[in-house]
């Protein structure tokens, strides 16, 4: 009695229809951006059009072959986000678009490769520590002298020859796999409360170690790499997964306290953290708005205000006035050119991805799969909240990418791998050759 | 774990709810406030340059004074002035960095399309996805007269204003030095900044129009105002006045002398008011002023539009206009000699060509002074007239009878007085010269104020050439300014 048999097979053709819709939206947005900016269909239409067409359809057929029971909307939703992001990047810079198109192809290949390679997500459960060490290793790789590179004040990059990448993006996915596996195995131990701290019932100190490791890793990332956003993200995922695995509120409380301590230390230790907080509070202060660091957040607000309800139209606004318009601030670029309607649609797509991810976690019958899907969905949700909240001044800005949308190869490839894992959990094990 | 996953979903939803609330706040509720933030200059600039700004046209509705061209890049429309400096003092400049001046500023609501009259048009354009378009401003400027004025003034420092006496239409408005508004209005910030800094640092202030925004002693051209007051108070053109070589001023040892120290009319014992105007006799006009008193002179000057102090005038005009100044009578209470000096346009009396053209136009128009008018109508982008500015009376400084008498006195000035250089064959010209001292050792300002034809005036002109222009201390209003006025009148009369 396999779990797959219990699954409701999605309506035939729905996945294909969604994929074609995603293709039409992606290529359509790119063509409209070209028309809006230059008044003619982009001359690169044949090249980029075929990358998207071949890439999406190839991935669709891989899903149909090795994960036929996959959620039909998951992959197409990510494709729409990818396509819209590409259209915006294209409209901001033809050069960046060429790179992003390459990364879209690599990302889709990584998606297919992951689905083909991981034929059953439970395979991964066997390599808990290997994956964990690999993740931490990748995370700390940029600190290694000689290959680490500091870009925009954060030491996140690794350069080998001409190829640069951000290993933390892949590390993020590996760490979720590790945590899902580790916590699933240890959840009973971590649930047992043997110590008391005031009203909180805590597990034995040795079982608390992983939380402290998580905290330490986050702080290390913060202090050694000066990457606020990633630090926040890792810590959030650790705490969330710990809580999901154990159901103990104590972890959340301790997590929040540790976060407050870490954030306080970061604030005291680093002027750039102080600056981020001050920018958050005073971005539009007329006395400060022309100072370094304040302008970018202020410009993002202005851009979104310019967009208003319906936006200026793709290619018709001036999102380039906002620094980092294609990476950290790409959400503001959408706010300007697609208006509130566009930003609402974008956010709804993330709500759909997160909701789908959590629903997959609920449906999955094994603990590892549940934790994995919930963790992956949390990454998407938390990361979206951190960057969109930062751009819109809900929280201080910390530089992370907007999943699938922002320019950036490492991020895009990592997100497609993440997506492949979610698709795999949703679909269950790949059918055996000749079988169903 | 399922319970936690469901709760996690609720937490995530709550977080996204915060984001939804915030984007609604930013993009709808706070959008206008953010758009107007002073730090948002770049986007405001872009928004402004996205507008197909309306043209400024001459009275023929054809000649382009200012127009917006489609340019490259984000700054879509670029402001151009096809005639360079020729109409600069009418249109002004249009710069995001340095603001706007003259009509570009005062008619901005129409030109930029923000005036309420344009709302239906703007909404239609928005729905159809067309760029916002501004309205066309039709001015009263006559290109032929403007060109003639500019040519006649040449490189002399000074200004020329020509008015249609019957309507108050400003037919020409030229000042020297002027500037090329294309430079300041350039979308290249460097070009604009360099031009603005150079023009702003120039001691001759090219950006401030000498035609209507600066004040100078009007000298003997002010005798027209004094003469009008005399006529209004019972002193006819034939009234006889003592003619000493110099006028002893009361309560002081000072005297008032004639131009060049001459004795008026060859030393005749009596001089009529008409002759005194014809030969511009200072001594007699000093007497007239003293005989009338400060109250009557001030009253007459007010009726022509002179203000008690700079910037306190009430003559409406479409671009910044600093009315002439004649001090409040209280000023003369313990300065009786100043009344004689003021009567000949010295002391604290001040004017500019716009003010003096209004004086001439009022005399020419039977004593009725029309409001100066620079904009005649506004047309929406499809050519429909959405607003018309009708000629309006400003005041009645003279009775029709006195206007007729003063006109004939002014005709004598040109026929056989100080203004012979303004004679036009076959046309009766009325005029008055002025040679205004404005400091020891400085060459006088040369003035000429006139209108033609005297019996049915079509144009009134006021000309000032500062510091005597190329003639320097040898200059007189008749020698330097009258020929310029003549050329402008000829252009208007088609000669």
Helices, strands, pairings?
The complex is a heterodimer of chains A (436) and B (495).
Chain A: H1 3-6, H2 14-38, H3 45-66, H4 74-92, H5 94-117, H6 128-140, E1 148-151, E2 154-160, E3 163-165, H7 167-191, E4 195-197, E5 200-202, H8 205-225, H9 228-246, H10 249-269, H11 271-282, H12 294-307, H13 330-363, H14 367-391, H15 409-427
Antiparallel strand pairs in A: 1-2, 2-3, 4-5
Helix pairs in contact in A: 2-3, 2-4, 3-5, 4-5, 4-13, 4-15, 5-15, 6-7, 7-9, 7-14, 7-15, 8-9, 8-10, 9-10, 9-14, 10-11, 12-13, 13-14, 14-15
Chain B: H1 2-29, H2 31-35, H3 41-49, E1 56-57, E2 64-70, E3 77-80, H4 88-91, E4 94-95, E5 99-100, H5 102-106, H6 108-111, H7 119-127, E6 136-139, H8 143-153, E7 158-163, E8 170-176, H9 181-184, H10 189-201, H11 223-232, E9 240-242, E10 246-248, E11 255-257, E12 270-272, H12 273-278, H13 282-292, H14 294-304, H15 336-343, H16 353-364, E13 369-370, E14 375-379, E15 385-388, E16 393-395, H17 400-416, E17 430-436, E18 445-452, E19 459-465, H18 477-493
Parallel strand pairs in B: 1-6
Antiparallel strand pairs in B: 1-2, 2-3, 4-5, 6-14, 7-8, 7-19, 9-12, 10-11, 13-16, 14-15, 17-18, 18-19
Give structural notes.
- The complex is a heterodimer of chains A (436) and B (495).
- With 436 residues, chain A is mainly alpha-helical.
- Chain A has 15 helices and five strands.
- Chain A has helices at 3-6, 14-38, 45-66, 74-92, 94-117, 128-140, 167-191, 205-225, 228-246, 249-269, 271-282, 294-307, 330-363, 367-391, 409-427, and strands at residues 148-151, 154-160, 163-165, 195-197, 200-202.
- Chain A has a three-stranded antiparallel sheet with strand order 1-2-3, with no helix packed on it.
- In chain A, β4 (195-197) and β5 (200-202) form a beta hairpin.
- In chain A, α6 (128-140) packs across α7, α7 (167-191) crosses α14 and α8 (205-225) runs antiparallel to α9.
- With 495 residues, chain B is α+β, with helices and mostly antiparallel strands.
- Chain B has helices spanning 2-29, 31-35, 41-49, 88-91, 102-106, 108-111, 119-127, 143-153, 181-184, 189-201, 223-232, 273-278, 282-292, 294-304, 336-343, 353-364, 400-416, 477-493, and strands at residues 56-57, 64-70, 77-80, 94-95, 99-100, 136-139, 158-163, 170-176, 240-242, 246-248, 255-257, 270-272, 369-370, 375-379, 385-388, 393-395, 430-436, 445-452, 459-465.
């Amino acid at each position: 009695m396999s779990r797959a048999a219990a699954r409701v097979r999605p309506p035939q053709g729905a996945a294909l229809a969604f994929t074609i819709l995603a293709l039409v939206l992606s290529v359509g947005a790119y063509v409209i951006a070209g028309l809006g900016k230059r008044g003619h269909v982009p001359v690169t239409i044949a090249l980029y059009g075929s990358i998207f067409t071949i890439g999406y359809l190839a991935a669709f057929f891989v899903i149909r072959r090795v994960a036929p029971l996959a959620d039909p909307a998951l992959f197409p939703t990510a494709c729409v986000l990818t396509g819209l992001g590409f259209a915006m990047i294209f409209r901001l810079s033809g050069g960046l678009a060429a790179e992003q198109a390459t990364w879209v192809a690599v990302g889709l290949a990584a998606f297919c490769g992951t689905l083909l390679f991981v034929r059953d997500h439970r395979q991964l459960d066997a390599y808990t520590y290997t994956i964990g060490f690999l993740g931490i290793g990748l995370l700390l790789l940029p600190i290694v002298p000689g290959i680490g590179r500091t870009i925009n004040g954060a030491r996140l990059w690794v350069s080998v020859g001409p190829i640069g990448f951000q290993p933390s993006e892949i590390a993020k996915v590996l760490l979720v796999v590790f945590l899902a596996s580790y916590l699933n195995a240890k959840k009973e131990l971590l649930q047992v409360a043997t110590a008391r701290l005031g009203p909180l019932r805590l597990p034995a100190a040795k079982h608390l170690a992983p939380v402290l490791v998580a905290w330490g890793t986050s702080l290390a990332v913060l202090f050694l790499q000066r990457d606020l956003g990633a630090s926040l993200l890792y810590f959030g995922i650790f705490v969330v997964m710990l809580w999901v695995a154990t159901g103990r509120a104590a972890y959340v409380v301790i997590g929040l306290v540790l976060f407050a301590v870490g954030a306080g230390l970061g604030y005291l230790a680093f002027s750039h953290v102080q600056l981020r907080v001050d920018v958050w509070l005073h971005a539009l202060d007329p006395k400060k708005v022309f100072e370094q660091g304040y302008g970018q957040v202020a410009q993002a607000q202005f851009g979104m205000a310019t967009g208003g309800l319906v936006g200026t139209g793709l290619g018709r606004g001036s999102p380039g006035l906002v620094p980092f318009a294609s990476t950290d601030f790409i959400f503001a670029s959408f706010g300007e050119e697609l208006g509130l309607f566009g930003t609402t649609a974008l956010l709804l797509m993330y709500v759909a991805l997160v909701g789908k991810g959590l629903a997959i976690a609920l449906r999955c019958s094994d603990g590892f799969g549940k934790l994995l899907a919930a963790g992956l969905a949390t990454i998407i949700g938390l990361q979206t909240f951190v960057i969109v909240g930062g751009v819109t001044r809900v929280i201080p800005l910390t530089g992370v990418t907007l999943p699938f949308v922002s320019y950036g190869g490492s991020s895009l490839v990592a997100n497609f791998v993440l997506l492949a894992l979610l698709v795999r959990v949703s679909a269950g094990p790949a059918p055996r050759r000749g079988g169903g | 774990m399922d319970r936690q996953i469901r709760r996690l979903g609720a937490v995530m939803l709550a977080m996204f709810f915060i984001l939804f609330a915030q984007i609604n706040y930013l993009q709808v509720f706070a959008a206008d406030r953010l758009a107007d933030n002073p730090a948002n200059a770049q986007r405001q600039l872009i928004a402004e340059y996205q507008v197909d700004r309306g043209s400024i046209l001459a009275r023929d509705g054809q000649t382009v004074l200012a127009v917006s061209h489609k340019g490259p890049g984000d700054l879509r429309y670029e402001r151009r002035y096809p005639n360079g400096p020729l109409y600069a003092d009418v249109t002004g400049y249009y710069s995001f960095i340095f603001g706007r001046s003259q009509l570009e500023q005062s008619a901005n609501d129409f030109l930029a399309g923000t005036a309420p009259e344009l709302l239906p048009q703007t909404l239609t354009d928005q729905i159809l996805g067309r760029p916002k378009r501004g309205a066309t401003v039709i001015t009263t400027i006559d290109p032929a007269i403007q060109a003639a004025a500019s040519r006649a003034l040449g490189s002399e420092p000074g200004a020329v204003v020509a008015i249609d006496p019957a309507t108050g239409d400003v037919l020409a408005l030229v000042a020297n030095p002027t500037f090329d508004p294309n430079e300041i209005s350039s979308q290249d910030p460097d070009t604009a900044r360099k031009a603005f800094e150079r023009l702003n640092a120039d001691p001759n202030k090219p950006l401030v129009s000498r035609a209507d925004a600066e004040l100078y002693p009007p000298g003997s051209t002010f005798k027209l105002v004094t003469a009008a007051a005399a006529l209004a108070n019972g002193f006819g053109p034939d009234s006889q006045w003592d003619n000493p070589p110099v006028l002893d001023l009361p309560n002081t040892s000072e005297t008032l002398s004639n131009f060049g120290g001459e004795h008026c009319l060859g030393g005749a014992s009596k001089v009529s008011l008409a002759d005194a105007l014809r030969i511009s006799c200072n001594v007699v006009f000093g007497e007239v002023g003293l005989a009338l008193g400060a109250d009557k002179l001030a009253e007459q000057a007010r009726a022509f539009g002179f203000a008690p102090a700079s910037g306190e005038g009430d003559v409406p005009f479409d671009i910044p206009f600093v009315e002439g100044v004649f001090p409040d009578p209280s000023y003369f209470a313990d300065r009786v000699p100043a009344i004689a000096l003021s009567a000949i346009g010295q002391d604290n009396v001040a004017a500019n060509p716009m003010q003096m053209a209004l004086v001439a136009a009022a005399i020419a128009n039977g004593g009725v002074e029309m409001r100066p008018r620079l904009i005649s109508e506004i047309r929406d982008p499809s050519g429909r007239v959405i607003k018309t500015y009708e000629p309006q009376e400003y005041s009645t400084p003279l009775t029709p009878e006195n206007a007729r008498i003063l006109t004939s006195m002014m005709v004598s000035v040109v026929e056989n007085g100080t203004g012979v250089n303004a004679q036009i064959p076959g046309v009766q010209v009325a005029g008055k010269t002025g040679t205004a001292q404005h400091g020891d050792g400085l060459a006088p300002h040369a003035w000429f104020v006139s209108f033609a034809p005297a019996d049915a005036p079509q144009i009134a002109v006021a000309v000032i050439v500062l510091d005597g222009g190329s003639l320097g201390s040898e200059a007189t209003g008749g020698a330097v300014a009258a020929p310029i006025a003549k050329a402008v009148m000829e252009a208007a009369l088609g000669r």
